[in-house]
Design a protein that fits this description.
The structure is a homodimer.
Chain A lengths: L8 H7 L3 H4 L8 H6 L8 E5 L5 H8 L4 E6 L2 H9 L6 E5 L12 E7 L9 H10 E12 L1 H4 L7 E2 L5 E5 L6 E5 L6 E5 L2 H10 L2 E9 L3 H6 L5 H4 L3 E8 L1
Parallel strand pairs in A: 1-2, 1-4, 2-3, 4-5
Antiparallel strand pairs in A: 5-11, 6-7, 8-9, 10-11
């Protein structure tokens, strides 16, 4: 079972300060790209894996989704989502994604933003999603980029020549990585791009898109602090179709 | 057009010293994995893109391939391949892979080992391959891993704490990288994993396998000098099917 760090008071308070927490989807720099991977939402039955505050669930309904099921491990997140949602077609439910059950062929779209890198095992969830999606259904997700999770010391360094570099090591050593991010001892699971893709294919999905997201040169010009994100992309986005 | 570095005398002489040059496929550490991505060769019509000394062409015939076309830009490589091949079902031909023409639906398998990272543009070749393969035909290839090609200074460094790291930068900055490898001024084209995958999908291929190859822990135990290859994998392997 994944660590339930979002119910840690210190973490929850820190996470609440992020632009993506305060502004929702528009506060997430990768959202415009992730959005291009999504099918038209009109009439879709949607499940959101790791729904957090419920920003995506509400957006999906605004775009015409028929019904949305938001799942999260965090009681704090679910409570906040419920308080800010007034829509009988959105259901929030507490769930451990590694031991999830869903009805068969009940969804047209499965979506997950920055949640799967908390899971120790992807295969059970992917098998569940494959059964829960209708044939032709889509699975669209983002995770922290494996280059972000891999290193022993995940912080940019400067070489003696003054060059900013990302000190990569342990890329092929998959497994837990513990960092201090809003709270000490946050555990994420590092896996390679190939492992994500192979897991999708093994579960019977067809890969339809893969994106190693970083800010555009124009975004870096507007926000110079993002420059390093082009040296080491922060997010991996993918879309797959249930065959 | 890709740089024809293999016809440089100094480069050719240096490349000839590699285990993969002297021992062939068995001298290439990634070959056992690449081999698992290949279909059974019996009866197949095969094209090898960047055939070099012709090791794979001869292996394919030994495994029962019906006919093999080996393509390379290097006259030196082709001359060496021809000298060491006595098989009327193997044809070697000089070709610039960025301006390749092949007959329609004439091949069951396209194969390429460590050649595509020399090409400035992948799309024309992928379109050619899609037309040249029969429906259901396979495309299996390896390239230098994008983590290998990306950095400004592609060499392991040691941190003040004594940790070996790969100084990653410029991962999202695609384009030429010039290094000194057997000869000064060797030009390779850096592109991301997502760009390789997206190009395949855009050309109409279905991705069937992706592998970020590095030596196994057992191989590192046998050859300790390879340890860094698990920090930063050297090769990207992929298999796709013509839809």
């Amino acid at each position: 079972m994944a660590q339930n760090i979002y119910d840690n008071d210190q973490f929850f308070a820190g996470y609440a300060t992020l632009a993506r927490s305060q502004k929702g989807l528009e506060g997430a720099a990768e959202w415009p790209t992730l959005q291009t991977l999504l099918p038209p939402m009109q009439g879709l039955r949607v499940v959101d894996l790791g729904c957090g505050y419920g920003w995506f669930c509400r957006w999906a309904r605004e775009q015409g989704a028929a019904a949305v099921l938001g799942l999260d491990l965090s009681e704090k997140m679910l409570a906040h989502a419920a308080q800010t949602t007034a829509d009988p077609a959105i259901t929030y439910r507490r769930a451990d994604l590694e031991h999830l059950t869903l009805p068969r062929a009940a969804f047209d779209l499965a979506y997950s933003s920055l949640a799967l890198h908390y899971l120790e095992n992807l295969a059970p969830l992917l098998a569940t999603l494959h059964r829960a999606l209708v044939p032709g259904g889509a699975f669209v997700f983002s995770v922290e980029h494996p280059l972000y999770t891999a290193p022993s010391s995940p912080a940019f360094t400067t070489t003696p020549e003054g060059r900013r570099t990302w000190p990569l090591d342990r890329y092929l050593e998959e497994g837990p990585r513990t960092t201090n991010w809003f709270a000490p001892g946050v555990v994420k699971q590092h896996r390679t791009i190939a492992t994500y893709v192979t897991a999708l294919l093994a579960a019977g999905f067809t890969l339809t898109a893969l994106d190693e997201w970083g800010p555009s040169p124009e975004q870096v010009a507007a926000t110079p602090a993002w420059a390093g994100e082009r040296d080491r992309p922060p997010f991996l986005l993918a879309a797959a179709r249930r065959s």
